[in-house]
Write a structure and sequence with these properties.
Blueprint (H helix, E strand, L loop, with lengths): L1 E5 L12 H20 L4 E5 L10 H15 L4 E5 L13 H8 L3 E2 L9 H7 L1 E4 L2 E5 L7 H20 L5 E6 L22 E5 L5 E3 L6 E3 L17 E7 L6 E7 L4 E9 L2 H16 L9 E9 L4 H15 L2 E11 L3 E2 L12 H8 L4 H15 L3 H13 L1 H7 L2
Parallel strand pairs: 1-2, 2-3, 3-4, 6-7, 7-8, 8-10, 13-14, 14-15
Antiparallel strand pairs: 1-11, 5-6, 9-10, 11-12, 15-16
This protein binds manganese (II) ion.
Manganese (II) ion binds next to loops.
């Protein structure tokens, strides 16, 4: 019994508003499907956030269908848990339940009827190709409610899994206390006895092979923001062999576009900026990978008169010339003689709302991303979801205001 474990693929995401980064994510998914087919995997587990949003563009849905069918048509079974990004706030079909109805061999169970935890757990347990998979139901809940759900549901899963013969796994999109300081739903000691626990939600790569049961987070398939660009560039999933007594776990990796975070400090006019940007990007341009040009996130401290739009133009033109994909992600204006000025993010043609919230409103990135999520929810008239975010924000407000620098 060979499993592939993926999570946090975020099909449809467009980091920094770049078409090329949206395509990178799709290409990486298709490459990992190649790997899965090559390895002759029996079952693929996707631990949530297959999609970046609950109503993905139709072309993204079409892409997902075609890739999943490459697997199911070869007899590979694919089981997905729901992540918060896959869940519309209102009562509605999710993209995963649509795929389940459309593709034979793809499963994404969600509870249909309310019932006791054990009844619910039973409904969420699948038996596929000789493997028992308990699929933790995704739900948009406040942190308190999600902890409450985990407290009742995880023991119920334990009971149901105890009765099963053969290899068994838990598939869940959930933060654990050991690895998630922000909104953990449970601790690793609450995990049911299983041969492997396939998790998603945390975007960094974590493997706790010695824990009983062993659990892992593959991390996001592609870095979705600058925070995810830090750390080792290993991206992909895990290959889990359950043929022996215990899980034997290996990396199942894809080469992604090389990515770098570069910081420069420049003073003077446009020619000085151009020279400095040419120097730093020139040094990185040669670091191509199998996936081509590197992606560079540039942070600039600038002491000079050139307007932000001009700085963005310089970065764009130098990147073109040198064959890199670079964005001026952070711009901080400094003036040596008169101390720090407020960063000028207005008037830039690259108006990153995240940057505005962080730089202008001095919010932490987590708070900023919740506010952006709230904006999206309201724009898509997803008031249930909006309500959930407001509750989360209000519960965390003290923490958030302490984060403000
Ligand atoms: Mn995610």
């Amino acid at each position: 019994m060979l499993l592939a474990h993926l999570a946090d693929v975020h099909l449809g995401a467009r980091p920094y508003g770049l078409d090329v980064r949206e395509s990178d994510i799709l290409d990486s998914f298709s490459l990992i499907v190649d790997e899965i087919l090559r390895e002759r995997v029996n079952v693929v587990l996707v631990a949530g956030d297959l999609f970046d949003r609950p109503r993905p563009p139709n072309r993204i849905l079409a892409f997902a269908i075609s890739q999943i069918k490459r697997l199911t048509e070869k007899g590979v079974r694919v089981i997905a848990a729901h992540g918060e990004h896959d869940l519309p706030g209102k009562r509605d079909e999710t993209p995963l339940t649509l795929l389940q109805d459309a593709i034979e061999g793809f499963y994404a169970p969600l509870p249909r009827t309310p019932g006791s935890p054990v009844h619910l757990a039973m409904e969420q347990v699948l038996r596929v190709n000789g493997l028992t998979v308990a699929v933790y139901p995704g739900a948009k809940l406040t942190p308190d409610k999600s902890r409450e759900l985990a407290r009742t549901l995880l023991p119920a899963f334990s009971k149901v899994l105890e009765r099963e013969e053969g290899p068994k796994v838990l598939l869940a999109h959930m933060g654990l206390e050991e690895v998630d300081p922000w909104s953990p739903a449970a601790s690793s000691s609450m995990l049911p006895k299983a041969d492997y626990v396939a998790l998603g939600h945390i975007h960094s790569r974590i493997l706790e092979e010695k824990h009983n049961p062993p659990y892992a987070y593959p991390g996001s398939l592609e870095p979705l923001n600058v925070a995810e660009m830090r750390g080792p560039p290993k991206r992909g999933g895990f290959l889990v062999d359950l043929s022996g007594g215990e899980a034997s776990i290996q990396d199942l990796l894809v080469d992604v576009r090389p990515f770098h975070v570069a910081e420069i400090q420049v003073s003077g006019g446009s020619p000085d900026v151009r020279a400095a940007v040419e120097k730093i990007l020139g040094g990185l341009a040669s670091r191509k990978g199998p996936r081509g040009k590197p992606f560079v996130y540039l942070k600039m401290k600038y002491d000079g008169e050139a307007p932000a739009a001009e700085l963005h133009r310089i970065v764009a033109s130098v990147s073109n010339k040198l064959g890199v994909i670079a964005v001026l992600g952070d711009l901080e204006r400094i003036r040596a003689s008169r101390g720090k000025l407020r960063p000028l993010v207005r008037g830039s043609h690259f108006a990153d709302p995240m940057q505005i919230l962080v730089e202008e409103f001095k919010l932490g990135r987590d708070a900023a991303s919740m506010i952006l999520e709230l904006k999206e929810a309201i724009a898509s008239e997803d008031y249930e979801h909006a309500k959930g975010i407001i509750l989360r924000l209000s519960e965390r407000w003290e923490v958030i205001s302490r984060w403000a620098r």
